[in-house]
Design brief:
heterodimer, A: 205 residues, 8 helices, globular, B: 1000 residues, three-stranded antiparallel beta sheet, 67% helix
Amino acid sequence: MTTPAPKPPAETGGDATLLLQQVEQGDPRAAEALLPLVYQQLRAIAGSYFRGQRVDHTLQPTALVHEAYIKMIQAPADGWNDRTHFCAIAATAMRQILANHAEAKRAAKRGGDRGGARGDGAQRVPIEDITSPSGEQNIDLIELDDALRRLQQTDERLARIVELCFFGGLTQEQAADVMGVTRRTVVRGWRQARALLNVSLTNTT
Amino acid sequence: MNDDRLDQRALELFDELCDLPAEQQDAELAARSGDNAQLRSLVEAMLQEDRREDGPIPSAEFGKGADILAGDLADGDGSIGSMPESIGRYRLVREIARGGMGVVYEARQDNPARRVALKVVRQAFSTPQMLRRFRHEAEVLGRLDHAGIAQIFEAGSARLGHEEVPFFAMEYVDGLPLDRFIEERGLSTHETLELVSRICDAVQHAHQRGVVHRDLKPANILVKSDATTQSGTGASGLIDAIGQPKVLDFGVARLTAPDARLLTLQTQAGQIVGTLAYMSPEQLDPTGQAIDSRSDVYALGVVLYRLLTGRPPHELSGVSLAEAARRLREDDPEPAGRHHPAFRGDIETIIAKAMDKEPDRRYASAAELSADLRRYCRDEPVEARPATTLYQLGKFARRNRGLVAGVAAGVLLLVAGVISASAGLLFALRANRALEQTNQELQRVTTFQENQLLSIDAQAMGASQRRHILESLDQADRDSVDTALSSVSFTDTARATIAENLLEPSLSAIDSQFENDPKVQARMRASIVKIYRNMGLLDRGDEVLTETLDRHADGIPETHAVHQRLLLELGLLRMAQGRHDEAEEALRSRIGPVEALYGEQSLAAFNAIANVGTTLRRQARFEEALEMQREAVEGARAIGVPEADLLGLESMMASTLGEMGRLDESLNMKRDGYERRRELLGPDHDSTLVSMHNYTSDLMAAGRLEQAEPIGRELVERTRARHGNAHPQTADALTLYGDTLAKLSRFAEAETIQRETLDVLIELFGPSHPDVALAANNLAASLDTQGQLDEAEQLYRRALEINESALGEDHPRTLMNVGNVGYVLNAMGRPEDAEPYYRRSYEGFGRAVGPDHPSALTSVGNLGALMMTLERYEEAELYTRESYERRNAVLGPTHPSTLNASYNLGNLLLKLERPNDAEPLVLAALNGYQAISPNHIGTLHSLGLVARLRTGQDRLEDASAAWKEAAERRAAVLGENHQLTRDARDELSKLNPPPSLSGE
């Protein structure tokens, strides 16, 4: 048997680490400054998944965010430590990535684009079910982006809950903490948002 | 009502209704939505979505969005989602699907004018050979011409961005996936079977041309939703109703991964899972037999099972990849007849035959499967036969191939060894050969017997005992028995079994057989002592040895070889008992006589010297130990002893060097030893694997993680191939490799390995073994680093429970679990819950290993930080100060850990508005970090702390100078726009307001 792995090591950090500390200290500008860095990192990691650089057999749902966290933030031994804030920022970054990506896809979808969330009518011919992790469900990102935009217009708070939980991988408790609301609010909000989004996403297929 | 307003109302109404019982919901909804039909149907749909856990956004899969997004972001040249105008001579029309393996477009070809599906594979060619091979194989595929196969028109490569990417152009099929088609058309069982027969025909066509699909599954089989094109040529009326199946992607799996089995394919985020269920056991076993057309027959069996019963034959959702592979290899699916009585008998037998784990027992071809399906449809007797009991028993042995074979072989050889030892001796004695000859014979036979006995692995044998017990039970009893057995050490029972049934009888046999030949008797008893020692049964070994020495004190002269052998056993046994003085005495006393017996320049003499070196090393007398071992190694080298013996001597010396801290020399010797052993014995020999393990673990201890990783991976593969999955050595190798990956921060990979380790250990030792606790702890560490805190918490707690009862409350491993539970609770944002654990870890480590041990230093620092989180500043100060002072004393004032504690304490005191107390700490942190580097992040941070210190002391000029320096340094290192830089500038301008413009 080899040695056990106690926690936690490492002492210093980079830009992102400092910024994150400031986020935790309640500096809203730090979050703004951190966002583009996280965005870059997430894009880079996502890209690398598909260029033969990774040989993971991971079934990990939040691997992307956590890989970004590990790459960017060097957790100190004492004091400053909270990955929740990082995930919250990553969630925002990912929402932006989604919006940009969906925009690009809309542009690319010459002719097939009706712009609306529902009744797009593009016929799908599934060639293989490789798209989603579960192998069962496919989500069209344009539809997802549309649905989220609508949700944001209707109820910004619900949209933020989806961002944090669905993209950032935060638990409902963590999301409540970040948003400064009770856990109950998040639990109910998630349930509402999920029901509405799933209706939108299911109806279009 | 506009859409926003509608959604708003729907959300509100949903919130009010969602907790009501389902039967009330309808009535309430009708009452509340009034005549707004739009609202009503929306809320109804929402309530329906709410009741199911899956759907596009599943209820509990947090973070899934990130993966979906990542999957979709995939783009060879890095640009986001843009569709090229054309690829090769195809004009792209639209994107049909995309995923980790590639993108599929609908495209147009002008000449001939046709619609194609263009699949761009996300894999660049690294060599022209690969590209040539790809084209060649694609040509073969192009020759497949069958109504049931989507034809491949062309395979080629095109430049996309800066990469050369392969693509296929294939027949565009406008249809539904097989399972959806059957569902939507509501096909009967007979119709479904006919449809599958037609798929079999298509598959058979490809097989006859030497092409295996390798990835058959409903999603790869489309059925034309509109049968007009087929109606004229349909062989029967039935076809029109059931449609024409088209199998897609024939041979593509092989084409895109020519040398890989699917498990070694690059996979990410579970892409493989949808495919896994259809994979045959031989596809999952990297060392197994070749994949051939019968692998497709297996997949067709799974397709049938799934289509008829609506379920997958193996439940794979939510399990690790390793576990999924295990289930597919080992578990028999429930017979299809259990799902529906209509499938009892022939249908379930047909499916079982198609899905047999042994390719030889399946239908030899898709055509045979298809023939049996059609026989069934025509009510003719089918060829498939239910499995016999004898065959079932055989299957049991096959599932446990590694263990059964290992244990059976071990026991058989053991018995054979004992018998042949006795028989050989009796034969020799009866033949009344010359004494010299008999002795040689005897020696050979004894050695053989000894080796057989030594090769028994009590741990593995115990594991298999446990498993056999559990497997003889019904599923219902298994869990309770498993729990009841958890307190039993099966390694111990296996040892007892070996001792009682083999060693003790051997001992009596030796005594009676060789009553009149005390030397032979003594030598053979020494062998038994050696086996007892190797099994860890030291007390019994001691008894047997003492008795032997007493019995022969008068009969055997001290200079005789047999007496020296007994002394060797005595020395080694004492060493194992930790009685090093006695061991040294016994082993030293041998050197003279052995030299006299075998010569000064003999292997025996050098071994005798090296053994003394080992006792010295155990006593930490390293210089003396090294001297003797070096003498032995150099002497043995000079006289040219067999390589295996030399390797043994060298590895003793390498261990001593390692313990002396001479890591480079030690590692070089160990690597050399490992490589030569590998050369000599082959890579899969037990000794090679052991030295590979040791070398890997030494590399890790020396922090050479990058070097350790590939060797560790190979170790896992080879050990698994040699011993099977459920084997202690496999568990050791997995543990080591998981640890290596985690130390390399490759947590996702580490997690996979660690899950596997945990599974294997539980299977081997039951759920309550300390090794299981350690594995759970290590897995949890990888999980919490990845933010999967809930599961990490459960695992830490489970490890804690096991160790509390197995090792005791104050054992360092238990305390490590305690601290980790606290750590994860704090990370979950529950510092109050974390506190008792932090305290217990702090106090326990203080008691168990002393307050200056690294573990204790970590735990006190953590406790201080936790108090700060809880805003209990007095206690925060107490512990942070203790952490600082101890680190300062133990690690020295310049150690980064000390600097960090110093910074934290200073920061805390400033918060408490005690600048003068903070001053020495703040300055110590700054100076310390500056000595490491003026650009160190700690330096940049500390400069700000100094400025705040000066502000607190009302030394505003100094404060402003410090902010100025902080601003400049931060700007130089981090850039002008960095938040830290801007902060420093802001603070600076607050202290020195710019001069007003009006004042002259």
